[in-house]
Specification:
By secondary structure, the chain is mainly beta. It has one domain: Jelly Rolls. It has one helix and nine strands, in the order αβββββββββ. It is globular, with a radius of gyration of 19 Å.
């Protein structure tokens, strides 16, 4: 009986993944996840393509500033997974080589939205990115108080990228995930993408 349940569960997951993939454009890779179970996917930038970046710094998305476009000028590989109502997803991106420089971004769209795929993202619920922003120089002290002004910590410098997104309200979402190369070495390189949905 346990074997029958196991086979049924595998078939169900496969069918869900297949039916979801059928809804998306061919360049969108569907990741089927289980709650509280980390799912890992191996990929390479060679499978992606260079895209227009104006959507990323558009005011309706605010994924990254225009000044950071150099971190996303390489090829983009696109993934998607589902986020249940009131869920949280944590994404971790690790290159297979220290010489591979990569960036990570992710945004939420409604579960009936199968068209908001970069670069055709006119708006989204929320978007975040991690591109290893270098440390910012300290600001000058405030002349009135003569106390240092606290500066928001910058993203950690290194090759590992991490993003956490939380659902808004009591509804499910599609999580759109982008792995992008940087200007200098953004056309080739392998990586592992880890997805954890809670």
């Amino acid at each position: 009986m346990n074997w029958i349940k196991f086979i049924f569960a595998c078939c169900l997951l496969n069918s869900l993944g297949w039916s979801a993939q059928a809804q998306w454009a061919p360049n969108v890779n569907v990741i089927v996840t289980e709650t509280n179970v980390k799912t890992s996917v191996d990929g390479k930038l060679e499978d992606g393509k260079v895209v227009d970046l104006s959507w990323g710094h558009h005011s309706a998305n605010n994924c990254f500033p225009a000044s950071a476009k150099e971190n996303f000028r390489g090829k983009h590989v696109i993934y998607t997974t589902q986020l249940p109502a009131r869920g949280t997803v944590t994404l971790t991106l690790k290159p297979t080589s220290d010489t591979t420089k990569i960036s990570l971004y992710a945004y939420l769209v409604g579960v009936n939205n199968f068209t908001s795929v970069v670069p055709n993202v006119h708006s989204c619920i929320v978007c975040k990115s991690d591109y290893g922003m270098p440390a910012r120089p300290p600001k000058k002290p405030n002349t009135k108080t003569e106390k240092p002004i606290k500066v928001q910590p910058a993203a950690p410098v290194g090759n590992t990228r991490t993003i956490t997104l939380k659902g808004v309200g009591n509804q499910a979402y599609h999580v759109m995930i982008g792995v992008a190369g940087v200007t200098e070495t953004g056309l080739t390189g392998g990586y592992t993408l880890e997805v954890l949905v809670n």
